Amino acid sequence: MLNSQQSDNRMNILIPYDITTTGMKNPYLFLLMRELVKQDLAGSVQHGYGWLYEPGEFDVVHLHWPELLVKSQLPDMSRTDLIEQKHFDKVIRAVESRKNRGASFVITIHNEKPHKDKKGKFEAYFRDLYNLMDGFIHMGESSKTLLEKNYPEETAGKPSFIIPHGDYSYFANDLDRSDCRKRLNIKPDQKLLLAFGAIRNERELNLGIDAFKQASVENAIYMMAGSLPYPYKSQHQHFSVRKKLYANIFNDSIRTAEKQIGPDAVQLYLKSADLVFIPRFNTLNSGNVALAFTFGKVVAGPDYGVIGETLRATGNPVFDPFVVDSAAEAIREGFRLAGSGHDKKNREFAERDMSWDSIARKTANAYLTVYQKS
Prior knowledge:
This protein is an alpha/beta fold.
């Protein structure tokens, strides 16, 4: 019998994250919850960090980014230097307590490891948390393979579910391409290579600049829209990390829109683009694949993890991020595909395979499997 004492298969679900803040940058959890509440298997869907520790019974708890459960305890979530062992212990104790009361736990694997964890501060915590999970949701087969390789004992005998990233039809899409380009000062005949969202470090920054210049695509622009590393000139790393960008400061074909892009402005950049470039290295997933496909754009990305798996399966160009020649060739191939109708195939893929209704149904069925298994 379910914790909620329901006689049917409906479950009370907890997603212990604050979707009102995560949605400002990425509406992923909001979009998932919006469809989950419509599912027959979902009795209720609650969200919020605090509910992991408060009274209240849930049948299934769905985790996403383990590091956020730790950072949410801090007065400032960016101050990772304030993290102490007690913050990790609090999460683990809460998970153990809920499991002892009958809840099942499933986690979606978004990242192979937390960002900005050079000292390995989260390694033991991830291992302890994975050991307590009852099932794992992956966005691709490569994610499952990597997790089982890195955590063989923690994943042994537990079910895995392959559920792709959802689309981003949530964003406004009501402007003409010509209007979007006018607002971004891009001429009708220019080709736009777009890197959208955060560029996290010097390697990613230089990869895009070097690959674009080496590709030598006639009448093309490379635009980085989103945050760049070390944004303040008062930071001592600012100029050293950005030296290649500053060396091209008078090159009008390399442009930046260094700011947080609001939801209503997303279409300005995506509809203006011909090709979306993902300047990542060993990154497991990227929402930019789903974002670009939603807007019907060709994508060039690293041949690693689910990014590479999805792009190869859909005929989009992949590259070795450690080889500039490879990235440059992917850019040339991407522009060629963009002019041959491949963009429409990507849009059709998003509509067919990335619908949130389908993802919510698969997720609810995963919940039922781990709960019945326990």
